[in-house]
């Protein structure tokens, strides 16, 4: 089954002349670990914003977690897509804002109108999923290490039980140990049935963790294959 299907998609930002994405077609299967690679300006952020339901295409269509998106999709339907997809920003400082870890993780579930009991359970479950002790709940997220902050940001997204998890350069600024631990965690989440889409510049991470790689250049997909195939000489 496919988690994301994109067909003949074009996207242009308002008041610009050239397309940020042109003629994209691709399929991401459920439970794949996909890496999106490409230079700055190649269209990676625009592509994941479309998958996250933040923007809609000019032409072409997407199917994300069973929901269809095209140029005529209404805001409320885009919002449904947004709620089935979890987006972890590049730097946790962009995502964390509350005084305590608990409040931060509870923000999304509360926004979705869940009951107090459901919220508490989702916070505890999310902390467990990212391997953080429940005792951290009362701490300020900003007092944590870089790796822990990343985990809190991921927990905040997981608390909403997304079908698809998008991570934008999740290991940016982390040291080698924290990077390896975080990637292992992401792989574990992937093994537990979450489709993972990771934007990265680290080819080593692609080779080691991804099972599908999409390479972008100038708004186009220039490779859509397995890491093994991309990195082989033949
Ligand atoms: P990447 O994430 O690979 O760096 P982007 O998706 O951010 O690439 O950018 C793709 C193209 O769209 C670039 O040419 C970029 O300048 C342009 N672009 C990105 N965001 C905007 C915006 N908000 N307004 C206008 N153009 C944009
Ligand atoms: P909607 O109104 O469709 O729920 P929002 O943009 O208000 O869209 O929020 C969607 C999700 O994005 C939220 O459930 C939340 O998890 C996340 N989010 C929004 N703002 C923040 C924020 N400041 N910090 C962390 N997460 C946020």
TrEMBL record:
Record-stated family: Belongs to the ABC transporter superfamily. Energy-coupling factor EcfA family.
GO molecular function (one): ATP binding
Subunit structure: Forms a stable energy-coupling factor (ECF) transporter complex composed of 2 membrane-embedded substrate-binding proteins (S component), 2 ATP-binding proteins (A component) and 2 transmembrane proteins (T component).
Name of the protein in question: Energy-coupling factor transporter ATP-binding protein EcfA2
Gene symbol of the encoding locus: ecfA2
Compartments where located: Cell membrane
Functional note: ATP-binding (A) component of a common energy-coupling factor (ECF) ABC-transporter complex.
Annotated keywords: ATP-binding, Cell membrane, Membrane, Nucleotide-binding, Translocase, Transport
Every ABC transporter domain range: 4-234
Location, primary (coarse class): membrane
Membrane topology summary: Peripheral membrane protein
EC number: 7.-.-.-
Range of the intact protein held here: 3 to 236 of 288
Organism: Limosilactobacillus caviae
